[in-house]
Amino acid sequence: MEIERTPGIRPRPTFWRQFDVLGRQSFPALGTLLGMLAIAAPLGLPGQAELLPGFALAAVFFWSVFRPAAMPPAVVFLLGLIADLLGFAPLGVRVLILLFTYGLALRWRRRLASQQFAMVWLVFVAVAAVAAGLEWAFDSALMFRALPAGPALFQFALTAGLYPPLAALLTRAHRSIAAWERA
Amino acid sequence: MIRLSIPMREALEKLSLPLLMAAAFGLMLAARIDGTLADRARMAFADALTPIYAAFTAPTERIRGVVTELRQLSDLRAENDRLRAENATLRRWQAVALALEAENANLKSVLHWIPSPEVPFVTARAVADAGGLYDRAVLVSLGPSVRVHAGEIALGAYGLVGRVTEAGGASARVLLITDLNSRIPVKFGQGGVRAILAGTNGPEPELQFWPAGTMPKEGEQVVTSGVAGVFPEGLPVGTVHYGRSGVPHVIPDAELARLGIVRLFDYQLQKVSPPRGAAGGSAALALEAGNGN
Q1: What is the residue-wise DSSP string for B54-74?
Q2: B31 vs A88: CB contact, 8 Å cut-off?
Q3: pTM score, whole prediction
Q4: How far are the Cα atoms of A50, A141, B182, B280, B282 from residue A145, in angstroms, in the given order?
Q5: Which burial class, exposed, middle or buried, applies to A15 when counting CB atoms under 10 A from its CB (0-12, 13-18, 19+)?
Q6: A95 and B17: CB-CB below 8 Å?
């Protein structure tokens, strides 16, 4: 007989229950994807082009820290690729930045998950600064010229400012929609 | 589900991140070596998304219309007065224009003027902002039977918008004149002084390389000069404006921040390659295309 890892009484795995669990497990990836598609839509908002990579970075960071099982590296790769395609950015740059963020978040998650929100935000701000710097450096290198730093700074500020409201939303999702243990 | 031993699984998990990072680097290099690869992938993706975005534009435009209508209702009287005054001025100009048109037709018939051919164009809706951090571009939704080529000129209601740089099956990407990669030969002032209009990614592109002693003046009209054969001559671009920096900028006539509908003209001019910003290479667009053929 197989030994259960977490013994206890649990509901029978019917089709609908499995569907529910699957839906909850895929929420972080699907939610991030749909969010990115929505941000790329023609809403005519100022700063929309800078919002897209910022949103992707914040979402990937949040889920990598708080629910890494739902944000495997292959999904991070795909999200980065879609961000590159949507933003008409040089292919691969955002993929690399998101994977880098994922790696950092995964390494620090044990310490980060128990911290106060302000501390997590501070770490994210540092990550966002590095990400904006990397994007500027890669874009400049791929275009063979030094690009103005203004847009990169703006993107960094937007990303840093986006995190608190986004994290508030995602925290609620993390405890409700995305919580597959509650299915 | 494939059953793997625990050490094997752990090893795979540890390896996946570096492998994917290497794949990202490979992707960057591949896109860098073969620029068309990235362009094709992008346009295929944009083509797939365009119908969805096009469905969204109608309701958002309706909401925007309601908001502007509400705003207009409040100052209807003032607006009416302003329009009446403007109408009177325009009537006067209309008389002048009619007289000039008659004179022009007269002179042309005397000179046996060869009329310039009608240029075919399509009108399309700008459905999405296809710019990135360092690009200013829009995505235009096209019908399935419409064929648009790279190099066609996009005009808005009032002036030059940009050029088609990539065309897919159901959409085309228009690089705006404000893009960092955009360099447009223009002329300004009475003598048609030549200069280059360089995009800065800001809302107002810069004027560069005018001949010594012919400073552009505030408020002067800027039109395309037709040099290099990428843009036809005489398309309205904007007006000269000096900002705080003392560098002459051009305020575009076209409402680039909120583009609704654009017209794509097929002037049958030289082929252009997309800006190499995203895909590879560098070099100024207009000048580069001018060297081709």
Answers
A1: HHHHHHHHHHHHHHHHHHHHH
A2: no
A3: 0.72
A4: 20, 7, 15, 12, 8
A5: exposed
A6: no
- Is B260 exposed, middle or buried, given 0-12, 13-18 or 19+ CB atoms closer than 10 A? middle
The arithmetic mean of pLDDT across residues A14-32, rounded, is: 85
Please give the pLDDT value at position A60. 93
Q: What is the mean pLDDT of chain B?
A: 82
Residue A9 forms part of a structural domain: no
Task: Report how far residue B24's alpha carbon sits from residue A89's, in angstroms, rounded to the nearest whole number.
Answer: 13
Bridge partners for B183 per DSSP: B198
Taking the C-alpha atoms of residue B31 and residue B24, their distance in angstroms, rounded to an integer, is: 11
A85 vs B contacts (CB less than 8 Å) = 41-42, 45-46
Looking at residue B163, the DSSP 8-state letter turns out to be E
Q: What local confidence, expressed as pLDDT, does residue B86 receive?
A: 94
Q: Does the beta carbon of B67 lie under 8 angstroms from any beta carbon of chain A? A: no
Structure letter (DSSP) for residue B134: S
ipTM score for this prediction: 0.78
Nearest CA distance, A154 vs chain B (angstrom): 10
A54 to chain B, minimum CA–CA distance in Å? 11
- The answer as to whether A85 is a domain residue is yes
Number of domains into which chain A is organized = 1
> Any residues with CB less than 8 A from the CB of B274 and at least 6 apart, and which?
B35, B39, B150, B165, B166, B173, B175
Give CA–CA dist B170/B139, Å, rounded: 10
Q: Is pLDDT at B284 greater than 70 in this prediction?
A: no
Does residue B287 have a pLDDT over 60?
no
Q: What is the pLDDT of residues B217-228, one digit of tens each?
A: 898 999 998 887
Question: Which sign does the torsion angle of CA A148, A154, A156, A159 carry?
Answer: negative
Q: Compare all CA atoms of chain B with the CA of A95 and give the residue at the minimum distance.
A: B24
Q: Domain B120-276 falls in which CATH fold?
A: Thrombin, subunit H (2.40.10)
Task: Name the residue in chain A with its Cα closest to that of B37.
Answer: A91
Segments forming the whole domain that contains residue A94: 15-39+47-182
What are phi and psi for residue B132, nearest 5 degrees? -120, -155
In a domain, A3, yes or no: no
What is d(CA B78, CA B74) in angstroms, rounded to the nearest whole number?
A: 9
Chain B neighbours among A 35-54 (CB < 8 Å)?
37, 40-44, 48-50, 53
| d(C-alpha A29, C-alpha A70), whole Å | 7
- The domain spans of chain B are 38-111, 120-276
Q: Per the domain annotation, does A120 fall within a domain?
A: yes
Asked if residues B135 and B175 have their Cβ atoms less than 8 Å apart, the reply is yes
> Rounded distance, CA B132 to CA A51, Å?
10
